[in-house]
Amino acid sequence: MELLRKNRNRAACRRCQRRKIRVYYTSVMDKLHAADHVRRPAFLVSMMENRYIAKMEKRIKWLESMVQESCPNVDLTQGPSLEEPHVDEPIVFDEDRDENHILSPEQEHTMDVEHGIEQDRSQNLNVSAHPLRAFPRMESRQAHEVGLVSLSPGSEPRYIGPSSGYFFANLVFSNAGRNQQRRHLANDSTGSASGDPISLVAELLNAPASLPPRRQSTMELSSKYFQTIHVSYPFLHQPSHMGYVEQIYGSEQVSPAVAFQVYMVLAIAASDLSRRSKVRLPSEGFYSMAMQYFNQFCPDGSLVGLQSLLLLMIYALHNPSCGINIWNLNYQCLASLIDLGLQRDVRNTPSLQISLFEQEMRTRVFWVVYTFDRTIATMMGRPVGIRDEACDLRVSSTTAKPPYT
Questions:
Q1: Fewest CB atoms within 10 Å of the CB: 68, 282, 319, 395?
Q2: Contact by Cβ (8 Å): 330, 337
Q3: Residues near 270 by Cβ (< 8 Å), separated by ≥ 6?
Q4: 306: how many CB neighbours lie within 10 A of its CB?
Q5: Peptide bond preceding 208 in cis form (omega within 30 of 0)
Q6: Residue 24 lies in a domain
Q7: 31/209 Cα distance (integer angstroms)
Q8: Cα–Cα dist 283/269, whole Å
């Protein structure tokens, strides 16, 4: 075999020579088959060359006639000069490709654009009169836009197919933008926006709502919160909250933090109950009333203030249309958690005089903030705000006892 490789083989056919394919013969029968293979391609290749040249001449004449019909002012004699090809350069023909597909009229414009045969003449052609010559087409442009999309900064581009709803969302939002633009133009021309139904509905729904006339109704609605939301996020103390409800009904002077907590619990419970029972409750009104009290106290630096921020977080998760930035609110909760030292276990420091009830509430609030941080960071694809190594991860041991429900 080594001797056969060293000797240059001159018996290869023109096709194998042109494609740089080495042919090795190990027997006399292989040489006889090779000799027969050499005699046949020489005749076939010559026929293919003549046929290809003849069809190319017909194609060029057909293209020139099309140009003369569409643009009579184009002078075809001013084309590029024809240079004779070098003898050393082989002419490569692809026998595997379908000849009818090569010479089909549907591919004429793509070949002209790719090879640049009519680059000097394309400036005078009227593209609008021939829509088939527009390149790239609308389909290719959309495929180019949707083919590879970076989902987040620094990530690899990924394919988004038709199932992602990109085209549908693009169509809907583009039409919505046009309608909103027309509405703004109409409002500017009339000088008022009083006829906008969206602003009217928002104004009516966000009107502050007072407490229910019956105290029992407020108690029942607050109990719905502790039966549903409190199970997942137990950062409030139910007996203390019911005492706040009694206080707000019994006296006219209550602290803004207490009134805010009562109204926010009603807003969250009303929103959840409306979604479950398909009954319209004034959750937006309770929320608007609570925000009036929120501006009267500072939520920083106290456990009650952090609980107020968590109530806003839960309401924003249940009502995305309220306009609260959840990521910024999560940052505020983490900052307050670190300021209060809730990430540390106070039981390791006996010198701190903290009651068991306060220790339990600190542990509950810590785990709720920790859960929100991990959940929001995962949903938004962002890094977590506080690492596990920076926290004393302890488990609440008295959550099942009645005084701490």
A1: 395
A2: no
A3: 221, 281, 282, 283, 286
A4: 26
A5: no
A6: no
A7: 100
A8: 8
315 inside domain: yes
Q: What is the mean pLDDT of residues 210-219?
A: 88
Tens-digit pLDDT profile for residues 116-158: 444 444 444 444 444 444 444 555 555 544 444 445 555 555 5
For 149, phi then psi, to 5°, come to -125, 130
Domain limits at 253?
207-390
Percent of the chain with pLDDT over 70: 57
Residues 6+ apart with CB under 8 A from 168: none
Residue 277 pLDDT class (50, 70, 90 cuts): confident
DSSP string, 143-175: HHHHHSB-SSTTSPPB---GGG-HHHHHHHHHH
Kindly state the DSSP code that residue 158 receives in the 8-state scheme.
B
Q: Which residues of 245-272 are buried (b: 16+ CB within 10 A; e: fewer)?
A: beebeeeeebebbbbbbbbbbbbbbbbb
Element containing residue 336 per DSSP (H, E): helix 326-340
* CA distance linking residue 266 with residue 259, whole number of Å: 11
Q: Is residue 33 part of a domain?
A: no
pLDDT at residue 326 tops 60: yes
- Assigned token pair, 289: 């009333």
Quote the CA–CA distance of 5 and 327 in Å, as a whole number. 71
Q: Whole-prediction pTM value?
A: 0.51
Tokens of 252: 């006219």
User: Nearest-CA neighbor of 311 among 375, 365, 240?
Assistant: 365
Strands annotated E in 215-364:
none
pLDDT at 297: 82
Does residue 286 sit within a domain? yes
Nearest Cα neighbor of 290 from 273, 265, 269, 272 is 265
Q: Which amino acid is at 221?
A: L
Distance CA 16, CA 42 (A): 12
Q: Is residue 244 over pLDDT 90?
A: yes
In total, how many domains does the chain have?
A: 1
